[in-house]
Structures are given as structure tokens and as C-alpha cells.
Design a protein that fits this description.
This protein is of the alpha+beta class. Helix content is 54%, strand content 14%. The protein has three helices and three strands, in the order ααβββα. The protein has a three-stranded antiparallel sheet. Helix 2 runs parallel beside helix 3. The longest helix is centred in the C-terminal third of the chain and has 25 residues. The chain is globular. The mean pLDDT is 95.
């Protein structure tokens, strides 16, 4: 996974501070929301050995489409939303994403 993708709240806080140094105004929630999608995308890219599926937001859920644009899976938050899940336990969220990506890829 890319070192630019925050994988913990410490990483989020650091990225917010770094971006503010460069003149960007960004909130922790914005960084987390982008990180959540990017983390799941990275798991799919790894499982498929390339970028064949796309992960995008569908409301509060994440939807996975294949190279033909067909929806092949959906990932839903455990709690209120993915931001809350990340804040509560980022490691657990990463493990759930890895498991879900494996199941969706393996189910085809």
C-alpha cells in the first residue's frame, strides 16, 4: 500500500499538518474519507495484480465495479459510517477491507 495513504489516525493528523504547511485547508474527515476509498482500492489492485476494478462512493457505502462497469460488490460500514469506523479502529477496518476484497475477487 502507498505510504501516502493514511492508515492510522496518527497518519491522518500528520497529513493534515503537512497539507496545511503547503497552503491547503483540509479536515481530518476529508483525509479519512479519501484514505478509506484509497485503501480499499489498493487491496483490489493488489488482489487483481493491477487496476481492473474501481472503488467509488455510493452514498455512505463503497461500490466496486469491474472493468466493464458492472457492479461486482459493495462494502458497507460497520458503524455509523466509514469515518467513524476508521476513527474507532483503523486496523480492524483495514482487515475487513482486505477480507472483503479477497471475497469479492474470489467470488468471480
Amino acid at each position: 500500500m502507498s505510504v501516502e495513504i493514511p492508515q492510522s489516525m496518527d497518519d491522518v493528523v500528520m497529513q493534515v499538518a503537512q497539507r496545511k504547511l503547503h497552503g491547503e485547508t483540509v479536515t481530518e474527515d476529508e483525509v479519512i474519507k479519501n484514505a478509506v476509498r484509497d485503501i480499499l482500492q489498493a487491496f483490489f489492485d493488489e488482489a487483481l495484480e493491477g487496476h481492473y476494478d474501481d472503488v467509488k462512493w455510493a452514498g455512505d457505502d463503497l461500490e466496486v465495479t469491474d472493468i466493464m462497469g458492472k457492479v461486482v460488490g459493495k462494502v458497507v460500514p460497520k458503524g455509523k459510517d466509514f469515518i467513524a469506523d476508521f476513527r474507532a479502529n483503523a486496523d480492524d477496518l483495514l482487515l475487513r477491507f482486505e477480507d472483503k476484497a479477497t471475497k469479492i475477487v474470489g467470488g468471480r
